[in-house]
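Give me structure tokens for this 374-residue protein.
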Amino acid sequence: MDSEEDEAPPLAVEIHDNHDADNSKPHRTDDGSVGVTIITGYLGAGKSTLVNHILNSQHGKRIAVILNEFGEEIGVERAMINEGEGGSSVVEEWVELANGCVCCTVKHSLVQALEQLVQMKQRLDHILLETTGLANPAPLASILWLDDQLESAVKLDSIVTVVDAKNLRFQLSQRHSSSSFPEAFLQIAFADVIILNKVDLISSEEGALQEIEDELHNINSLANIVHSVRCQIDLSMILNCRAYDATASNHASHLEAMLEETKSLSSKDLHDSGIRTICISESQQVDLDKVRLWLEEILWDKKDGMDVYRCKGVLRIQDSNQLHTLQAVREIYDIIPARQWRSEENQINKIVFIGHNLNEDGLSDSFRGCTVTN
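Here you go.
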């Protein structure tokens, strides 16, 4: 079995005192916080290879890498603790590498590790969090999105999923008809960026790689797919994506472009993988309070048995000249005015859902109950 995860974890190297070579400005967000990228992926996909690539490359960025050894039971409550069992420290010592990166291993408390980083008061361009023992990145995304202590210091930038191009279809078919899905489904469903690794091992037969991309887009049509061999990618593809920042200048336009593409995709006769993407649209203005109640019924109460993992959209709100963006990860969501509608734009509500047991007609019909009648 091909596996890049057999590589040894990143090794600490000799520390050099001279860091004057990099005087570039950090890639901080507008509010001064540092972006955090969650890296996840199926066993053998190449997560360790990607981390090693980052830690050994002369990229001129000061990146903190947190190797996360959380267990499957991790949740917001567990992650908020400051001490391990018996009061012992749960964050290994930070090690500085020759290229300016710093690295540590976290046993339990992500929050504690991030607080240590903030306390260092050193310039950071970015933070990478590799999920070594966690199938589902949603709990970590929730912590980064909700924790008040961290809100001003760090900000969730994106979720990056590494997938094995050669073995992906086998991994997805393992429990295809089961009510529980293999890790690969969830990791793809939550991704903002998918690194399709080991593309060199795919048959040169015409259309073979496209079939794999179609399978990925069936599950999550909102993610950007990046091809790679041994995860040798341009870091700009996974850093400073600002996937959760509704205030980013290009956020709304980028989201609208993805929604347009997704609408055409969801109208096709797709192979139902159990977890899939659908898109609904509505031209009438909607009542914001009604939208919130409608969304909470779906996300919190799992109306009609639907289980939504991710949700993104643009909304045309009653008595507002501003385009509102909607984003949700599991039960957490926000709706934020992003910018004014442009005069030439077709003002319309578009919402994409990624999840299990989704009912497109049911979602469309119930959303119409949020519209405003003139």
